[in-house]
Backbone:
């Protein structure tokens, strides 16, 4: 049997070969193939995003306007979910059974082992109910997020709202990841980069049950979340809220500006909505309601609604005419109602009384002087030269151009120019006689309320403005963007403002003025009424004003839709706001009561088409 | 002749050292696998490393007792031990406790013992005793039958306990039979059968289309190919009638096997067993189900890289991604924490041990000792083959322990007894004539 002992070689050979195969396989798995190292990291490494708290927003006096409230995202790890009483669970969360299934299957399809968001943005009040019973539902747990909270329930159009980023945003901006919040409108959108702060990432090791087991590399690669900047708005919360209160049951807007700085003190668009409606889970429910509302509460009239300026525009016409030297302070024109209508009043013998009485034929003549300066023998050509010049001058007042304020989606309004009429009527086929309704701020001209408030500012400052803005300061840096510090001159010398301001004072203070209702005890108010023609119904009531006359502290524009003559509604509202701001309280409570009780919501049909004030 | 001093003097130190090193590596790995910052004392018996320390101490005592017992005892009592074992296996079937689907445990309080583990050395003793009897020739059919009964009886009893893994271990005795004269053709036929089984499994899921309208199933195609090969062999080589008949018989056997694969796969194997084989062969991919263990095991081992993540630094094993990581998948801990270097050393240690045992077996004057030695080497090798093969995705998932390393008292003791009886036999080889 000697040959049998050779078989030891065969057996030893098999043992060796197997050992060698194992070593080769290990060499491949451990050294050549990299896949398992990546898989290993995927197994144990979890990036836990540290969501930063969004920056707080205060008003100019340190009144808190926006803060963060804890909210909860209900997370689910499908693998850990046991048999549960689905019906009871749905009742607890306030969702439908089919929603539960959809959400659960979606989470399970994503991953059985990794957590997914099951129900987003549960408020702390709702969560308190859920929390007590959550232990009975293994696989579900809550993750803290924050929701915006608006304690004053006002200034919704200014503040805007935030929402979760959509795929388009994620594709365009590498900062954002699914689940992040972003400002969708208002200040939240304009100052998104300041307010959002910086997301942090914590890398943690997890075990097979997804339990945290400590930090990766002792946290060397972790980044901390950086809280968003706290910002102070120029808004005065008291004035803002008072404005909103006065605008109840009315449509229109109020914009008030501090003339010295261009800071917006109040920006009211009515009807408004409670900003807390567009927070968290409720957005889904409330947004469609608001956006389908006939009264368009989401529409920010102060920035987006373009109306003719009406008679308030006479101030601009007078200033341009004075600057051009085509009239002087003493120029008078008779009130001939053949071209434009007018109310009955004594003849305006100078610029001051023309403003005080708002004489339409007077400004028909002024505008004719501006346009027809005899620079060409052709009436058409002369009108063209005049309009080109005029259009440029008007735009320097911030009209017909986009004011680069810090709210998104502002409209620029419209100041007609030569090109426009060339397209409209044909070149050389229009002249002053075609376009004279511009003289009294009617016709093709359009301005938004913010631009009107800016016009008040220009009048208050006697010739310059700073772009109206809402940011007062950023907490840590104490600066604001430099574009808000540029002094814009309107190209009319300060001395020409004197008669205009004088006229505006008489509008309010003197018998025969068009806005006696705007008078405030012991403060000199300068104002100008306007009525914007509205083809769809009753005219819009307009008032622009500033106070006090010398060293003005507040400039304002008020638009009330379908409220008729400017002196009736817009003027008293403007005066109440100014009085509240300058004196802190209202003396004439009857005046306040009349406004608060007025309901101007009904669209009233036009009563008197011809009268223009 | 018997000198107490000589008992220790003649012991093969290399084998003992390899044994101690492997046991030590095992304990270290169990410590790492269940390590958890809250527990510090290595004697804490609420933890597996604490328990294993107890098992190891007991194993050393057992080894010492074995060395102290006269070698004659093992030859003399080979059959009684074997019969005692069979009775115990029957006993456990009747009175045993079920753990993880296998009814293979005796429980006394919190202490559990798995008798099937001890079947290995008892069977090895009985087989050695039988084959070393005078006038026994492997070529005789009677010898083959009786040897089959000795190996098969405990194997079947363990299969009845629903412990497939431990049953398969008995296949390793084929090496012993081969060494003692079983025709090499038996090994080749076994290999050929396994090969055909795998090929058939891989092909049966497909159908093949020829000449645009002739559709063959995988099985049919395989038989056509085999028929062509058979015809070719007959055509090329001698055309004696005897050879012709052998080839035809081989072909019929192959065809029968191919057709029975479906039946075996669907009816004989348990569904989870079929699934494991499918996953191994890449027919099914199921990284979260049957393939989960192997996938996680490969991730753990693969992520170890060249030098490993370091002792107690293995994230995959420490955070429980690998199931059964202190028992069947203990190799993952070594692969992850000690890397390719550590794995390489471990494989060298094992292969070194196997070769050392063969070397020792071959120097025995007693046939009994030689056969027993081969049985020891074969059993250890089979565990090594399946356990590490499974961990690195080369063998189906069969739950059998890695000798000396996996956690568990029964297996450690049984391997210790198995090995130390041989060490004792070897130490007394000079005193034994046959």
Residues:
């Amino acid at each position: 049997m000697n040959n049998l002992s050779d078989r030891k070689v065969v057996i030893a050979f098999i043992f060796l070969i197997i050992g060698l195969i194992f070593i080769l396989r290990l060499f491949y798995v451990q050294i050549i193939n990299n896949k398992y190292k990546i898989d290993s990291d995927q197994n144990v490494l979890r990036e836990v995003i540290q969501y930063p708290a969004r920056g707080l927003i205060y008003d100019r006096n340190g009144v808190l306007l926006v803060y963060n409230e804890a909210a909860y995202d209900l997370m689910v790890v499908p693998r850990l979910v046991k048999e549960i009483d689905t019906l009871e669970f749905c009742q607890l969360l306030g969702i439908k059974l089919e929603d539960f299934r959809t959400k659960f299957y979606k989470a399970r399809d994503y991953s059985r082992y990794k957590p997914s968001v099951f129900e987003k943005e549960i408020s702390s009040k709702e969560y308190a109910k859920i929390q007590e019973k959550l232990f009975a539902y293994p696989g579900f747990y809550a993750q803290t997020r924050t929701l915006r909270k608006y304690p004053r329930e006002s200034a919704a159009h200014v503040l805007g709202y935030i929402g979760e980023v959509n795929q388009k945003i994620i594709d365009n901006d590498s900062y954002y990841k699914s689940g992040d919040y972003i400002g969708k409108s208002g200040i939240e959108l304009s100052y998104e980069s300041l307010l959002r702060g910086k997301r942090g990432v914590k890398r943690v090791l997890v075990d097979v049950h997804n339990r945290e087991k400590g930090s990766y590399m002792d946290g060397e690669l972790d980044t901390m979340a950086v809280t968003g900047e706290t910002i102070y708005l120029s808004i005065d919360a008291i004035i803002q809220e008072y404005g909103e209160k006065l605008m109840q049951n009315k449509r229109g807007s109020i914009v008030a500006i501090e003339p010295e700085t261009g800071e917006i003190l109040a920006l009211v668009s009515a009807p408004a909505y409670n900003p807390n409606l567009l927070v968290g889970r409720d957005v889904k429910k409330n947004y469609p309601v608001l956006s389908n509302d006939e009264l368009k509460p989401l529409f920010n009239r102060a920035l987006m609604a373009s109306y003719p300026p009406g008679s308030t525009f006479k101030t601009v016409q007078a200033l341009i005419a004075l600057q051009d030297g085509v009239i002087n302070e003493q120029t008078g024109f008779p009130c001939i109602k053949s071209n434009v209508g007018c109310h009955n009043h004594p003849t305006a013998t100078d610029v001051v009384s023309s403003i005080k009485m708002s004489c339409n034929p007077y400004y028909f003549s002024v505008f004719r002087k501006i346009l027809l300066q005899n620079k060409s023998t052709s009436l058409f050509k002369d009108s063209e030269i005049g309009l080109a010049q005029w259009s440029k001058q008007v735009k320097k007042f911030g009209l017909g151009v986009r004011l680069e304020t810090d709210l998104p989606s502002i409209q620029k309004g419209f100041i007609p120019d030569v090109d426009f009429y060339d397209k409209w009527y044909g070149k050389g086929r229009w002249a002053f006689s075609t376009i004279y309704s511009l003289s009294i701020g009617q016709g093709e001209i359009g301005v938004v309320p913010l631009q009107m408030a800016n016009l008040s500012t220009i009048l208050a400052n006697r010739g310059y403005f700073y772009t109206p803005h809402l940011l007062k300061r950023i907490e840590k840096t104490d600066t604001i963007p430099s574009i808000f510090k540029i002094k814009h001159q309107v190209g009319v010398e300060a001395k020409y403002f004197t008669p205009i301001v004088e006229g505006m004072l008489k509008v309010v203070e003197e018998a025969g003025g068009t806005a006696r209702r705007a008078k405030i005890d012991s403060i000199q108010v300068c104002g100008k009424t306007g009525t914007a023609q509205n083809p769809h119904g009753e005219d819009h009531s307009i008032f622009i004003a500033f106070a006090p006359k010398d060293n003005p502290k507040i400039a304002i524009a008020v638009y009330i839709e379908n409220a008729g003559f400017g002196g009736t509604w817009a003027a008293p509202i403007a005066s109440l706001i100014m009085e509240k701001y300058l004196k802190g309280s209202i003396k004439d409570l009857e005046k306040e009561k009349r406004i608060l009780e007025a309901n101007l919501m009904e669209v009233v049909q036009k009563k008197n088409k011809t009268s223009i004030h | 002749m018997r000198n107490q001093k000589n008992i220790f003097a003649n012991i093969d130190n290399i084998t003992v050292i390899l044994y101690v090193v492997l046991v030590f590596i095992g304990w270290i790995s169990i410590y790492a696998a269940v390590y958890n910052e809250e527990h510090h004392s290595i004697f804490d018996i609420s933890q597996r490393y604490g328990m294993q320390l107890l098992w190891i101490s007991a194993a050393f005592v057992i080894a010492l007792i074995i060395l102290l017992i006269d070698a004659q005892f093992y030859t003399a009592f080979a059959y009684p031990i074997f019969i005692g074992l069979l009775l115990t296996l029957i006993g456990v079937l009747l009175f045993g406790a079920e753990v993880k689907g296998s009814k293979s445990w005796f429980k006394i309080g919190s202490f559990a013992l798995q008798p099937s583990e001890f079947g290995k050395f008892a069977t090895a003793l009985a087989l050695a005793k039988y084959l070393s009897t005078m006038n026994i020739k492997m070529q005789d059919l009677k010898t083959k039958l009786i040897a089959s009964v000795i190996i098969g009886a405990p194997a079947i009893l363990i299969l009845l306990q629903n412990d497939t893994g431990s049953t398969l271990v008995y296949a390793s005795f084929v090496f012993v039979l081969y060494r003692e004269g079983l025709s090499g053709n038996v090994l080749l036929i076994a290999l050929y059968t396994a090969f055909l089984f795998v090929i058939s499994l891989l092909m049966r899921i497909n159908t093949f289309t020829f000449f645009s309208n002739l559709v063959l199933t995988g099985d049919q195609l395989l038989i056509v190919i085999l028929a062509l090969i058979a015809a070719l062999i007959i055509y090329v080589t001698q055309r004696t009638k005897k050879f012709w008949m052998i080839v035809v018989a081989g072909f019929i056997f192959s065809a029968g096997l191919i057709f029975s694969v479906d039946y075996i796969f669907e009816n004989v194997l348990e569904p989870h067993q079929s699934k494991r084989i499918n996953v191994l062969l890449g027919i099914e991919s199921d990284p979260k189900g049957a393939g989960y263990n192997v996938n996680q095991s490969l991730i753990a081992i693969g992520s170890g890289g060249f030098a490993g993540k370091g002792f107690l630094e293995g994230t995959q094993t420490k955070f429980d991604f690998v199931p059964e990581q202190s028992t069947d998948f203990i190799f993952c801990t070594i692969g992850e924490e000690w890397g390719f270097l550590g794995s390489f050393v471990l494989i060298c240690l094992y292969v070194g041990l196997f070769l050392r045992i063969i070397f020792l077996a071959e120097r025995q004057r007693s046939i009994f000792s030689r056969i027993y030695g081969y049985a020891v080497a074969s059993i250890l090798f089979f565990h090594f083959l399946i356990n590490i093969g499974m961990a690195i995705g080369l063998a189906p998932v069969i739950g059998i322990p890695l000798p000396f390393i996996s956690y568990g008292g029964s297996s450690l003791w049984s391997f210790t007894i198995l090995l130390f009886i041989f060490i004792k036999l070897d130490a007394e080889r000079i005193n034994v004539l046959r």
Remarks:
- The mean pLDDT of chain A is 88.
- Chain A has 22 helices and 18 strands.
